[in-house]
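Handoff note, outgoing to incoming analyst
You'll be picking up this chain. Sequence as last confirmed:
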Amino acid sequence: MITNLPDPISQMRSFTIQSIDSMSNHTRTQWSAADETWRVFRIMSEFVEGFETLSRVSPAVSVFGSARTTADDPYYALAQQLGRELVGHGFAVMTGGGPGIMEAANRGATEAKGESIGLNITLPVEQEANKYQTVSLDFRYFFCRKVMFVKYAVAFVCFPGGFGTLDEFFESMTLIQTGKTEPFPVVLIGSEFWSPLLDWMRQHQLERHGYIAEADLGLCMVTDDVAQAARHIADAYKETLEARGDDGVIGSELTAEGTLTGRAPRRPDPNVHYEDLAR
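Most recent structure output, in case you need it:
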């Protein structure tokens, strides 16, 4: 929790959360417009706390993977080693704060005396936060948490996992493919797990349907060597800093979520009638 926020902000956050919590017994259809307005303030409080806390940490690498991975699983040991390797290159390690791969990466970072960040989430089935977090934040809203994973990370590393891991992987690919972010390393650990997915993407998305381009398959890297993964991330980050120049400024304007602004969608001229377009 943040301890140095100005008192008015802390008081507003506390009052807002109490107000929203009072609606917790309402069903979705019972929420009034006023209820929804108060909910905006709770969402805002999660962004404020996240921005205030994470703006003070080192450049981070977001690590994803299954919460069901046990401590005797080889991927647990690899994630633990990755945490140590990343700290050795000067990075903070950021996970979802839960068990499994998240615990292993946080554990490795903590053992290496580095910054170990956990972005915990409130779930209907209670998730137990792992004990290896030096910075810990709690989120009620997935979308607030996802912004933090992107905004404060210089790379994504995905270990084998379930729907959540695939969600983060494909989100990163989408952000890079659409130019919504600067390219950043997306590393997939475990060729046995990830190669069949990439083969399917090539055979069906690329070759059969043409939904993606050949270059899109090069947006990620697959490896079984976590030391190589950490070096790849460190080299890419160094190149990014050199490309930005001495002032470290990104060429394009950034949004609050850490993505690039881009251009507004083009729309048909409202003064042109549809029958005119058909001629």
